[in-house]
Predict the 3D structure of the following.
Amino acid sequence: MERFTPVYSKQAGQTERCHPADKTMLAAGYDAWAPHYDADMRRYGYRVPALMVAQLRCHVPDRRAFVLDAGAGSGLVAQALKAFGYQNVVGLDPSMAMLRRACTKGLYRLCLKTALGAPAALADHRFDAILAAGVLKAGHAPPAALGALVRAVRPKGIIIFNLQADKVAAEEYNRMRRRLETGHQWRPLIATLPFDPLPGVAAEQKNVIYVYQTAGTATGDMPPQP
Ligand SMILES: C[S@@+](CC[C@H](N)C(=O)[O-])C[C@H]1O[C@@H](n2cnc3c(N)ncnc32)[C@H](O)[C@@H]1O
């Protein structure tokens, strides 16, 4: 627990509009955690990468699909992707130490040291699918990053991410999620039941995994759902 707690305890009371200095602190926290992250997550029974890749297999079965692992961390999502044969994976993360670990596993076509929501971090409409595991929460990528994901994926692309099930903790993210729905930028395909992302961590909040499909054109003209 000791290695796990400090990274999150720094975020207590932060909002998605945290000061840039807090972001630096967060990256430093992940840099320090990087050498132990995989072992800790194994110990805690981390489920999110496997559950997300199971969703990807249903919605994007083509193993040649161009997939972005947003907030790649140490590469656990890419390991799950590789196990199911996905070959064209790009990793993105602002923590150099995490990204270095991910990239030395040889799982990515390309690794980008940047943050979701950073200006021009990603070219528009490139990816067939994006997975963002453990990234959309306070002190990490802000709610506006959901819009960046929509722009980065091709028309009718697939976006898979997890949020905390707690309505207060995820309030701003849920508001942005719904705003993109009412703006016909994307439509929901799946929302899982709340599940325990880290069964080995007693106090960890339950998560929900969402699967969205973006509009049929880059300008977001998806017709309203019946
Ligand atoms: C809990 S870890 C999850 C890593 C990996 N996706 C996994 O499931 O193991 C969160 C990651 O998000 C990254 N992160 C934090 N803020 C971010 C942002 N704005 N954009 C992208 N990644 C961010 C951190 O550096 C860290 O590697």
About this structure: The chain has seven helices and seven strands. Residues 4-214 form a domain with the Rossmann fold fold (CATH 3.40.50.150).
